[in-house]
Design a protein that fits this description.
Methylamine Dehydrogenase, Chain H, five-stranded mixed sheet, alpha+beta, 33 strands, single chain, six-stranded mixed sheet, 9 helices
């Protein structure tokens, strides 16, 4: 019998999307398969229409790198996270409107919707994971057991769990009802960069800066697959909707495609110049997208999922498991897979032209119409300075990312983590600074600093302020959780009182009825 790889068709490159002015950091397909969203170091959100000869939209509003993007399950909203410490909810229309959530005290690394679209989960460099209400546009609760930057957080398909990972080298699993960490996987040699549930919610996968990718069975809490197929850190990965395949993007410049049923690498794609920072399957799995340090978004036709899954099911029908086959817990061997991808590599020319359409016309769209800010434990609606800032932001000065392209996507993060004071970020010299940062330095220079020249004193003051803000945010989180518990207890007390009152009233009515009947009987016998 031929192997699975021999009967599958190769993935093909369909289109290039050129419009970002800097590295592409995140991407997601719309539920209706008509649009693709991407975020970038250039601070803009792009919405690409997948139909030919249609316009693309650039949404401007974030003040720093966009780190995460996701369509809501209905497709009516797009959420983005940014290093500017905010999360925005965009309406993907010509109006370009957005709502701003702000409660993190440091860069926000990821944002994701729950599968019912009611909640958002965010992960941040302030070491916290936060959950938000989409419709009420307010903060709900915070999860605070990570001891370093949190890189990624995701809801399980049923919404009962949250998985998160970060620079403390751990993957944590949280119960959304109890708000408690119910499991922690720590078998990593470096930072964990990305985490995701499979579509059935039975497994989570996590990737590391050490180039490893691991899959854990949540029913047994055991590691069931471990891949070491990249030569540099993995920045992103995505499960195929069938759970039979997984794609990963790495700083080594490649996209890898894994066959999870056979437990092996089947394709290596070389379409990007430099690091591949994001990969994502469409909701149906027939397409996937990749984005990288070369500022390009590439759209691929999957093809390798054309094999009938009925054949796969028949091949696995005799597996010794009580659960419906096939599933990952029955894959052997359960040891690291050290593959040699040369024989299965598919090299896509880096200069291949988009043969189907020219670059789409890009329409620039504006800033937020209002923002939601967490102040003193309450959510308040804040007006924005859209009119004042529109011209400045629409210029979108490109950030200099020579270091990012030479040393890899994550290289600058470790350097910043070692010198994490806010003052060092403001005062750092050299070519790594962008034009935007230099403009802000020029516009917002402190008169006291000019007169005294004591940079170290200012750095110390800023560090102290940041620490105090961090403590204040944690305090607010605790108070809000306590307030929620108090409200729940109050509702329960009111319900019990109402029940008791009804019982007392019905009891009194019965006594009055019995009394009248007794009086009537007495009169009758008299």
């Amino acid at each position: 019998m031929p192997t699975m790889a021999s009967v599958l068709e190769d993935p093909t490159l369909e289109r290039h999307f050129n419009g970002h002015k800097d590295a592409v950091t995140c991407a997601d397909f719309s539920p209706n398969h008509k649009q693709l969203a991407s975020g970038s170091v250039d601070k803009s959100l792009m919405i690409w229409n997948l139909a030919l000869k249609t316009r693309a939209f650039r949404f401007v509003g974030h003040q720093d790198v966009i780190t995460g993007v996701q369509f809501s399950p209905s497709g009516s909203l797009v959420a983005t996270s940014s290093k500017d410490r905010t999360v925005r909810l965009w309406t993907p229309s010509m109006k370009g409107e957005s709502t701003v959530f702000k409660a993190h005290t440091a860069a926000v690394r990821s944002v994701a919707f729950s599968h019912d679209g009611q909640r958002l989960v965010t992960a941040s460099d302030d070491k916290s994971v936060k959950v938000w209400s989409v419709h009420r546009q307010c903060f709900i609760y915070s999860l605070n057991q990570h001891t370093n930057w949190v890189r990624c957080a995701r809801f399980s398909p049923d919404g009962r769990l949250i998985a998160s990972c970060g620079d403390d080298r751990s993957v944590r699993l949280w119960d959304t009802s109890s708000k408690q960490c119910i499991n922690c996987f720590t078998d990593y040699g470096g930072s964990t960069t990305f985490v995701e549930f499979n579509s059935s919610g039975t497994c989570i996968a996590s990737s590391g800066a050490d180039s490893s990718l691991k899959i854990w069975d949540l029913r047994t809490n055991k590691l069931i697959q471990h891949y070491q197929v990249h030569s540099a850190g993995i920045n992103s990965f995505s499960f195929h909707p069938s759970n039979n395949y997984l794609i990963s993007g790495s700083t080594d410049g490649t996209v890898k495609i894994l066959d999870l049923l056979e437990g092996r690498l089947i394709y290596t794609l070389h379409g990007h110049k430099g690091a591949v920072i994001t990969v994502a399957f469409s909701r149906t799995g027939n397409q996937f997208a990749s984005g990288g340090a070369d500022s390009q978004v590439l759209l691929w036709r999957t093809n390798f999922d054309t094999k009938s899954y009925q054949e796969v099911l028949q091949q696995h029908s005799r597996r010794s498991t009580p659960d419906p086959p096939p599933h990952l817990s029955d894959i052997h061997p359960k040891v690291p897979h050290l593959h040699h991808p040369q024989s299965t590599a598919i090299r896509i020319s880096q200069t291949v032209a988009d043969t189907r359409s020219a670059d789409p016309h890009v329409i620039e769209l504006g800033h937020a119409v209002h923002s939601t800010m967490l102040l003193n434990g309450r959510t308040r609606l804040m007006p924005t300075q859209a009119a004042a800032n529109r011209h400045h932001s629409n210029r979108l000065p490109a950030c200099h990312v020579a270091n990012l392209r030479e040393e890899g996507w994550k290289g600058d993060e470790s350097a910043r983590r070692e010198g994490s004071s806010l003052g060092s970020q403001i005062g750092a010299g050299g070519g790594g600074r962008g034009r935007r940062e230099e403009e802000e330095e020029t516009e917002e220079i402190n008169p006291q600093e000019v007169l005294s020249g004591h940079q170290s004193s200012l750095d110390s003051t800023l560090r102290h302020i940041v620490q105090q803000l961090d403590i204040l945010t944690q305090t607010v989180s605790v108070l809000e959780e306590r307030l929620t518990l108090t409200e729940d207890k109050l509702k329960e007390c009111l319900f019990q009182q109402s029940k008791i009152f009804k019982d007392v009233r019905s009891s009194g009515e019965r006594r009055r009825t019995d009394s009248r009947e007794t009086n009537g009987s007495s009169v009758h016998f008299t």
